[in-house]
Write a structure and sequence with these properties.
By secondary structure, the protein is an alpha/beta fold. The chain contains 17 helices and 15 strands. The longest helix has about 55 residues.
Length: about 550
Amino acid sequence: MLLTLSIRNVVLIEALDLSFEQGFCVFTGETGAGKSILLDALCLVLGQRGEQALIRKNTEQASVFAEFQHSSMLDTFFEQQGVPVREVISLRRVLQTNGRSKAFINDEPVSVQILKTLGDQLLNIHGQHDHLFEISKQRELLDQFIDLSIKRTVELAFNDLQVAKENLANFETNLSSAHSQRAFLKMQLDDLNKLRPLEAEETLLLEKRQSIAGFAKIADTVSNCLKGLTYPKDLAAEIGLHQQTLVRSNNIKLQTLEDAAKGLDRAYIEIKEVQQLLQDLLEEHQDHAYQLQTYDQRYSEIHTISKKYGISGDELHPLWLSLQKQGNNLDDPEHERNQLQKQVSQMMQQYINAAKILSNKRMQAAEVLEKAVLNELPDLFLPHARFRINLQPLAEGQWGPTGIEQVIFEVCMNPGQPFSALHKTASGGEMARLMLALKVVTSTQKNLATQIFDEIDQGVSGSIALAIGKRLRRLGNCGQVMAITHSAQVASQAQYHLVVQKEQRQTTTNTNVLVLGESERVNEIARMLSGHEINDVARQAAIELMKE
């Protein structure tokens, strides 16, 4: 629902601030007062194309600001666009003389196209270019009578079908490269079958190696030291030989030789003890050294394969399991093709089944809508008009997320004439009334956006205009409806009334809008009935109309 509208420097409007309520509101005023400017301003803030001619003379920019009541139905839009959600939706559009245009939603800058996408959901303007002339809008109107879950099922089934088709198409396109890919995968499988990697084996090896690395280093040091004491000659044995030689040669009992022999004897004993200690230590830790060598060798094998394929050692095990599952596919591309074709067939059948259910629901809804519209036409003085809904099957290549048929509204306005598609029928007073009938019978189906009718009463008067006014009032009971009208009969049915006036100043002209009270409404409707002369007869006639 439109809550407020603020306009600055748009053609004849210098500054205008309006507030709106729910229900049926009319805008009246003399020709040229500026009613169309209000529509132009609304179109601008809703994302329609902005013309430079809209900028008021001698100003640098025009701006329009509008506030709408938020609906949870718009949450998906705000989430997709990354715009903050607020209780009141604010739209702002700025048009500058340099040709630039700025658009904002909830004070966040957006593209004009995004603004238009949201604007189309917030407000509809009905006139000669009514959106109901569009085929897609006719389908949307009919689908208001159908459970949303059914339409969603068709949409999801179609999306799944498209994914399956895309997968098959990609397979066929990449078949040559797929041969290379399969050869590569088979080479990986062969390497991994030989390696037989365990889960997280690289991490496990590093942990084990770290736990024994200290012991292994000791064993290595001890081994080197022991080799130094025993190879190429046993140092203790050499010292023992020299000690015995000194003892045998000391015939004269020289004290110095005796001391030297005793020193060598002590050295012999010490070295033999050291050798035994080292030997015992080596025997104790040589298993760690062997384990370390084993771990290093296994780690080297894992590292070589993981480096070859550009992955970590811990990723080898899940890759091996995956390749084992693909074993048949690696040797037979036809298996993969058959699987993809089977998936397309399955998705196609699911889509067709869902689309047929939707088609049946549309047929039922079409009967209801046709009957409801036909019941409205006599009261709108269209007793001979006929309306029907044609569900035209589409070729398979035209199927889409909305189903397998095209919804076409068809009309016959006069007896003896053939039915013709609504989008190919020229607009006019009779067509505008038929559009109003459609709006009235569909208004209770969901919470509609604000509806604005631009001179829907053009070319009619009297009882026909009154019937139009009553329908607009009825439509207003379901939401917010506005009408720009020159008809007193239509204006008399409004729940609130605004009059557009043009004020002439010395050098400028300005358009203003006034909210009318009850007595002011009587005078305005009397003016519309009689012209510029407002007399008691016209006032009484206005009062009688308003009583209707």
